[in-house]
From TrEMBL:
<dbReference type="GO" id="GO:0022627">
    <property type="term" value="C:cytosolic small ribosomal subunit"/>
</dbReference>
<dbReference type="InterPro" id="IPR013979">
    <property type="entry name" value="TIF_beta_prop-like"/>
</dbReference>
<protein>
    <recommendedName>
        <fullName>Eukaryotic translation initiation factor 2A</fullName>
    </recommendedName>
</protein>
<keyword id="KW-0677">Repeat</keyword>
<comment type="function">
    <text>Functions in the early steps of protein synthesis of a small number of specific mRNAs. Acts by directing the binding of methionyl-tRNAi to 40S ribosomal subunits. In contrast to the eIF-2 complex, it binds methionyl-tRNAi to 40S subunits in a codon-dependent manner, whereas the eIF-2 complex binds methionyl-tRNAi to 40S subunits in a GTP-dependent manner.</text>
</comment>
<dbReference type="GO" id="GO:0000049">
    <property type="term" value="F:tRNA binding"/>
</dbReference>
<feature type="region of interest" description="Disordered">
    <location>
        <begin position="435"/>
        <end position="517"/>
    </location>
</feature>
<dbReference type="GO" id="GO:0003743">
    <property type="term" value="F:translation initiation factor activity"/>
</dbReference>
<feature type="compositionally biased region" description="Low complexity">
    <location>
        <begin position="446"/>
        <end position="457"/>
    </location>
</feature>
<keyword id="KW-0810">Translation regulation</keyword>
<keyword id="KW-0853">WD repeat</keyword>
<comment type="similarity">
    <text>Belongs to the WD repeat EIF2A family.</text>
</comment>
<dbReference type="GO" id="GO:0003729">
    <property type="term" value="F:mRNA binding"/>
</dbReference>
<dbReference type="InterPro" id="IPR015943">
    <property type="entry name" value="WD40/YVTN_repeat-like_dom_sf"/>
</dbReference>
<dbReference type="Pfam" id="PF08662">
    <property type="entry name" value="eIF2A"/>
</dbReference>
<keyword id="KW-0648">Protein biosynthesis</keyword>
<dbReference type="GO" id="GO:0006417">
    <property type="term" value="P:regulation of translation"/>
</dbReference>
């Protein structure tokens, strides 16, 4: 069964130390990926959110923008002291940050990718997680906003020549997150100050002159937050992190998960059933449910609906990552980073586990846009050895594996899941042949290699017996002797020899006692 002819083909960006390539597939012809764009020199590369454009930052302070349909370069920018760059969701704009050479220099610039003209500039001293990208866009680019001192500034995403069209005053605001689909609301985080608790507030972005929050939650012991909107912009998950755990249960501080909705029905904690940190919290692609991995190891995983009611318990294990399939139906629960790499694939609609497998040392992981494949990668600089890519089928069987001397980045080219057919039809078209996951030759402990060699040369050879301490070796014999049982079969040669010596000594002693009497 073939894919719909109108469905786009999958593509993968693979970046090494000095260059990147663009692969076509899967499925791969003869088990190997095709190459759409080969070995382009770069230090960084990033797709736009819709997959229409590709930004490539080259080592000589040159940024090129490619059209992903034909892999042709459409625009090049030569910018000295460039530090960071990112495309807007539809690839209409390129946003750049240059190291300032003078105070008040306008070093953040928004460029039109089609013409190469700057459409907006402002000054920014530092680059931090909360301030980059400096200008946030909704997914359709209709709404744009920027965090400033004590306020949020809004722009017309289609015409920046209008300048700031409205301002939302939020005293002390340190981070904001614009909802993406649609850009109808904005969440603002205000840290603790002078005994006043930290807070997360939701405002309507279309009516920014109205400074009244439509939802709010206060927190004590809050250092940082992660703000996660769902698709539809109706609910917000807030992961609240504190640097210090006053219960002294965790060296890494404490965390909790809150849920806020724009209708005000929920402004409280998510009811988690195990104590410990929140490892991961992710919305499904539909935005109707979310999953949380939480608690001290072994961690627990639970699915909730948009009313914060538990839907499904996914069990416990060494997990810290959840990945939803963009086509629905499936999800992957995994333990990456400093965990062993266990992965469990679920059909959450039918509430059944499909399989359990492993992808050791994985740094990144993501589903393909069509929902048929799951890719993990071990990349530098997080890990300098065993770099490589693994691609699994939706049910966890290994489809493809490739090792690299050095691998820095692996990304699927984004596509809208709606461009592909129904997931049940898509998975029927798969050839689920399994690839054997062999370790490279020469790896692994010598004892393991030696035991494998011995077992291959003599398949009937018994496994070595488990270690038993000296006192345990004679325990069974002593017990049997006390109970008057026969122990000849279970005793070792040394034990039998010692037993005979003791019997002779007893006989000799009994004879000497008889002669003396």
């Amino acid at each position: 069964m073939a894919l719909d002819n109108h469905s786009p083909s999958l593509e993968i960006l693979v970046r090494g130390p000095e260059e990147f390539s663009l692969w076509t597939g899967p499925p791969f012809v003869n088990g190997q990926p095709g190459v759409k764009l080969e070995k382009i020199n770069c230090v960084n590369a990033k797709f736009s959110d819709d997959g229409s454009r590709l930004m490539v930052m080259k080592s000589n302070s040159v940024i090129s923008v490619y059209d992903c349909k034909n892999a042709k370069e459409i625009r090049s920018f030569e910018l000295p002291n460039i530090t960071s760059a990112i495309l807007s969701p539809c690839g209409t704009y390129l946003q750049t940050f240059q190291r300032p050479s003078a105070p008040q220099e306008k070093n953040v610039t928004l460029w039109k990718t089609e013409t190469g003209d700057p459409v907006y500039q402002h000054s920014q001293k530092h680059l931090t997680k909360n301030t980059w990208p400096a200008i946030q866009f909704s997914l359709d680019e209709a709404t744009a906003c920027r965090l400033a001192t004590n306020e949020v500034q809004f722009f017309d995403g289609g015409d920046f020549s209008k300048g700031i069209i409205s301002r939302l005053r939020v005293p002390g605001v340190a981070a904001v997150e614009l909802s993406s689909t649609p850009g109808s609301h904005i969440a603002a985080f205000v840290p603790e100050s002078k005994g006043i608790p930290a807070s997360v507030q939701i405002f309507a972005s279309g009516n920014a002159s109205q400074s009244q929050a439509i939802a709010r939650r206060n927190f004590f012991r809050c250092s940082t937050t992660q703000l996660k909107w769902n698709r539809g912009s109706t609910g917000l998950l807030v992961v609240v992190q504190s640097d210090v755990d006053k219960t002294n249960q965790s060296y890494y501080g404490e965390s909790k998960l809150c849920y806020l909705t724009i209708d005000g029905k929920h402004e409280g904690l998510v009811p988690l059933r195990k104590e410990g940190p929140v490892h991961d919290a992710q919305w499904s692609y539909s935005g109707l449910e979310f999953a949380v991995v939480y608690g001290f190891m072994p961690a627990k995983a639970t699915l909730f609906d948009k009313n914060c009611n538990p839907l499904l318990e996914l069990g416990t294990g060494p997990y810290n990552t959840i990945r939803w399939n963009p086509k629905g139906k499936f999800l992957c629960l995994a333990g990456f980073g400093n965990l062993p790499g266990d992965m469990v694939f679920w059909d959450y609609l039918d509430k059944k586990q499909l399989t359990a497998t492993k992808a050791e040392w994985s740094v990144t992981s993501e589903w393909s846009p069509d929902g048929r494949y799951f890719m993990t990668a071990t990349t530098a600089p997080r890990l300098q050895v065993d770099n490589g890519i693994k691609i699994f089928h939706y049910n966890g069987s290994l489809y493809f594996k490739k090792m690299f001397n050095k691998l820095y980045q692996v990304d699927w080219k984004p596509e809208s899941p709606s461009k592909f057919g129904d997931i049940t039809e898509l998975i029927m078209s798969l050839d689920l042949g399994k690839v054997e996951d062999k370790k490279p030759s020469g790896q692994g402990p010598k004892s393991t290699q030696a035991s494998k060699k011995a077992s291959s040369t003599n398949p009937l050879a018994q496994k070595p017996a488990a270690y038993r301490p000296p006192h345990a070796k004679t325990a069974a014999a002593i017990q049997a002797e006390l109970l008057g049982e026969s122990t000849g079969e279970s005793l070792s040669k040394n034990a039998l020899r010692n037993k005979k010596k003791r019997e002779k000594q007893r006989e000799k002693k009994a004879g000497s006692d008889a002669s003396s009497s």
